Amino acid sequence: MARCRVPLLSGWITPFIMGFLLCMSIPLASAKVRRYRWEVTYELQSPDCLEKLVIAINGRTPGPTIMAQQGDTVIVEVKNGLLTENTAIHWHGIRQIGTPWSDGTEGVTQCPILPGETFIYKFVVDRPGTYIYHAHYGMQRSAGLYGSIHVSLPDGISEPFAYDYDRNIVLNDWWHKTTHEQAAGLSSIPFVWVKEPQSLLINGRGWFNCSQAGTAVCNSTNPQCSPFVLTVVPGKTYRLRISSLASLSAFNFEIEGHNMTVVETDGHYVEPFVVKNLNIYSGETYSVLVVADQEPSRNYWAALNVVSRKPDTPTGLAIFNYYPNHPRRRPPTAPPAGPLWNDTEYRLNQSLKIRARRGYVYPPPTTTDRVITLLNTQNRIDGHTRWAVNNISFTLPHTPYLIALKHKLHHTFSQSAPPETYDRANYDIFKQAANPNATYSDAVYRLKFNSTVDIILQNANSMVPNNSETHPWHLHGHDFWVLGHGPGVFDPVNDPLRKYNLVDPIMKNTVAVHPYGWTAIRFVADNPGVWAFHCHIESHFFMGMGIVFEEGVERVGRLPAAIMGCGDSHHLRRH
Question: Where does the Plastocyanin-like domain lie (predicted)?
């Protein structure tokens, strides 16, 4: 059988073409249609022992894991059973080649799914790897609407690393206030911050001290909040697919006494390196190999700690259970405390270690056609606290961009060109801005089809003195090359020469920009559609930290009527 990879290409090839080459190497007979039928509903559940409303899929949070093979077509029939609330689901990391209307981004690629209605998402999973899905409407992800996507290689094709068992780890942070209360506070004058989470969840399970629950229903013996147990057989190797669906927190994940070998991230093979603990940011996925090679007469902690923000949340815990020990037998030691929460250099160094695996390197174009620099700042607009890029705070239009651009409804959003840089010579990223005022806009960046685009993410001080936050940025519809990270202000003359990796850069769909630092990425605008690019922290995107790219919309086929109906698209919908 043909191998499903392109080894050590001498030139470069775009991810768009790469996807088709990979899929075409798979015999058509091996591709299948995977069908799922989901209902999204509110449920009373107790993920951390305190009962609250969650948004669940078929009664579960996290939702069902989508299992498919490379080249398969996935069809998900989603019924919105929330009764009084819209919804939409984004398939994070799936590039939606040829199906931009199935990206699931309300306001960008579709109208929301109305209460009681059913929407059918249909797309091809063109590349193996670990991906996620989650709500992309309001702040519903924070309420529990999320899950995993596992895409395996076709039968008979092996990966470049060996393991005995494949396991899933989904990480999340958890609040007791509803997402509606959180959103209302973020939109209020005076501003009400969501604060730190009450608990951290591993595969949907955490722990909250019920003595602090007040009048809320809280039961520490509820089986819904018993620690997740990962049972291992001594001597065996486990592939752990670790995903962060965090709404706010940057995480550090550690298995007590065990090293982890990083082998994959966001669907791309990594040149293996060993870590004691793994830093993972919202929207990222990693595969690590863990060998059950420690003393087998006891169990061990799997620990989840907050980094980059001063923690005010207990460590999230699971049990790494050595068979045949009892799965509920608590380890005799204290859980790992993780690295110092404010050790930015430690986290930056781990980011710099992530490179493409030898034999699976897809070199980027050596030059770029366009450079867009995005300054990440916290601002005020008419008394409201907002996040912005280049002093513009993003707002979604009532008519989704894909529909508006395809049908030339240009009056539905701003036609002005958003700024491509900031005043680098006069802006001090290490201080609070002298003038924090910004403006709203729903303008889009128009990209020439098949052009190469560099994005420089520049971090800065927020409106809080001596504070710069980690921002994980996610690009829809594409993978990008991570060219480099660095501290301080990006130097457009020297940093590309001295700090860019054009030899074996990793490709990802989500990457962090560290406090007071910069991150440079490169992608080819070769996937016709309209694609969001935004901070994956739920509250930050809600508060305006994002942009939208348009590329080759004229090449997009006829749009399905099912995505229409809102804003000025209501007259386009055909029943």
Answer: 40-152, 169-324, 430-552
